[in-house]
Amino acid sequence: MKEKITSKASDLFLKLGFKSVTMDDIASEMCISKKTIYKYFCNKEVLIEKSTEEVHQALHQVIDTIVAKNYNAIEENFEIRKMFKEMFQATDTSPLYQLKKHYPEIYQKVMLRETNKCNTCFRQNIEKGIEQKLYRKELNIDVYVKFYYALIFTIKENTISEKDSRNLELEALEYHTRAMTTPEGIIELEKQLLKAKTE
Q1: For residue range 118-174, what is the model confidence (pLDDT) as tens digits?
Q2: Fewest Cβ atoms closer than 10 Å to its Cβ: which of 30, 34, 50, 194?
Q3: CB within 8 A of 33, min separation 6: which ones?
């Protein structure tokens, strides 16, 4: 039951917002009493924290699955972006924006988890791109990882609309990729951009 409550709460939080969804809403959606929810979660903040952990794990499992498919480095980043777009297409307001505004302590915990995982993903992608001759070999990888992380999370934290956030993230991905690519990489980037804009 605890897992079912977490799953339903995660869906509602992402769709309607962390602030607006109440324990009554979750109980009503699940056709259970609010008392049942409180048996597992002493308050809404604990439930939000558990939900964000679940979403984090689900996202990174999907990222690991995409990475395992052995796309080239540029296509891999576009596939990951597409996955984020599909997972959050029913969401109106950026989840990270909501957390930062309404639940700053939980937001800080989320960011601690994300920092290490994202930086590892970005680093591995850049190393792969250099190996595939899609990215320039003389890149300072640490600097590019920091640049991209700062760019992406500044967008996510400060853009209210999830749709606007997704559009800006595509621009950021293009900006980041163009800064690193070889002539061969530019050809692949243009191909992926064309594909992304028709999806």
Answers
A1: 899 999 999 999 999 999 999 999 999 999 999 988 998 888 888 898 889 999 999
A2: 194
A3: 27
In a domain, 164, yes or no: yes
- Spatial distance between the Cα atoms of 88 and 94, rounded to a whole number of angstroms: 9
Q: How many residues does the chain have?
A: 199
Residue 88 in this model has a pLDDT that exceeds 80: no
Rounded Cα distance between 81 and 47, Å, is 27
How large is the greatest C-alpha to C-alpha distance in the chain, in angstroms?
A: 61
The CATH number of residue 181's host domain is 1.10.357.10
Dist CA 51 CA 33 (whole Å): 19
Of 24-28, 111-115, 173-177, minimum mean pLDDT range? 111-115
- Is 84 a member of any domain? yes
Which contiguous run of DSSP H or E holds residue 125? helix 104-131
Q: Specify the amino acid at residue 114.
A: E
Tell me which residue range forms the domain holding 114. Answer: 52-198
Smallest CA-to-CA distance from 177 within 159, 163, 191 is with: 191
Domain total of the chain: 1
